[in-house]
Every structure is written in structure tokens, then in C-alpha cells.
Design a protein that fits this description.
mainly beta, 2 helices
Length: about 160
């Protein structure tokens, strides 16, 4: 199973997914944004409250052999991508639209349109939309199991241990 398929396996489905995507597509139209022709991941991180903890990911490229990945990450106002770190992946976030609050290694930062932030491996980080926001993630290739979430309830990533 490739990494995008792993992501799609944990993506929301049904009416909740449809509503989230319709809302995002309305916002993308306001921004006059071109979207890549890929299946988006609509993630609530298994916590069941997409409006509070979640995001939508459009994987533009995840080229493991070439050593790079590019994704659009979208959050709504008040929505948070939960605190996590990566053992291997280095990533840089570039704010395409909106404003986000970022906790990066315990430092609280506000980033707006046109600003970027590199996040080296091992540094815990999370971001929250201060308004509808779109981030371009440029990084090393994405491996789902290289996500280590601080919240043990999140049932994915390298530190998740299924019951049983």
C-alpha cells in the first residue's frame, strides 16, 4: 500500500467528508485556487470533531525516489492540526492564504500570507487556522508512520499501538 492509500484509508467518508470538501471548494473558488487532480484526504485524526481537530490535504507530489513531497494543507478558522513530530521528515510550511498560529518547539508564532517556517525532524509542532488558511508543505517524502502525535488517542502514526 502506498502512502497516499494509507492516508485515504484514514480519511473521513460520507456526508461529513462531502460537507468539508464543499466548504473548502467554496473557499478555494474565492481564492481563485487551482487544485491538483487528486483525491483529497479529509482528516479528523480519529477524534471525531473535524471542525476542531482536522485538516484537508491535497497531495501534489510524494516522490520518494526523488526525495521530495508537496502538499496543500487547508484548515478553517479555529481548526487545528494536532501537535506531532517526525523522526525523519524535514518540512517547510509556506502560507499561501490566510493566517495561522503555529506552536513550533514550544514557540508560538503567527504566520500570514507569504510567510514560511522550516520544521526540522524531532520538533513537535501544530498549527491552527486564525481564519480559513491554505499552507503549502514542502518536505521530504511523506511516510504516514513517521508522524508521532502527542495525543495518544490519535489512532495513526508511528507511536500508535492498536489494542489487542
Amino acid at each position: 500500500m502506498d502512502e497516499l492509500d494509507k492516508g485515504l484509508a484514514i480519511s473521513l467518508s460520507g456526508p461529513g467528508r462531502d460537507r468539508a470538501l464543499a466548504e473548502f471548494r467554496r473557499q478555494a473558488a474565492i481564492w481563485n485556487l487551482a487544485l491538483p487532480p487528486v483525491a483529497p484526504l479529509v482528516l479528523d485524526f480519529g477524534l471525531g470533531d473535524f471542525g476542531k481537530v482536522g485538516l484537508i490535504e491535497f497531495w501534489i507530489a510524494n516522490e520518494a525516489a526523488a526525495g521530495y513531497c508537496g502538499k496543500y494543507l487547508a484548515v478553517t478558522a479555529g481548526q487545528t492540526c494536532p501537535k506531532h513530530r517526525h523522526r525523519v521528515k524535514h518540512e517547510t510550511f509556506f502560507v499561501v492564504q490566510g493566517r495561522i498560529e503555529v506552536d513550533c518547539g514550544g514557540r508560538l508564532l503567527e504566520l500570514g500570507r507569504g510567510q514560511s517556517l522550516p520544521v526540522p525532524p524531532g520538533v513537535y509542532h501544530r498549527f491552527t487556522g486564525m481564519e480559513p488558511s491554505l499552507i503549502l508543505e514542502l518536505s521530504m517524502p511523506c511516510e504516514v508512520d513517521d508522524n508521532y502525535f502527542e495525543d495518544a488517542r490519535i489512532p495513526i502514526g508511528g507511536n500508535h499501538r492498536p489494542a489487542g
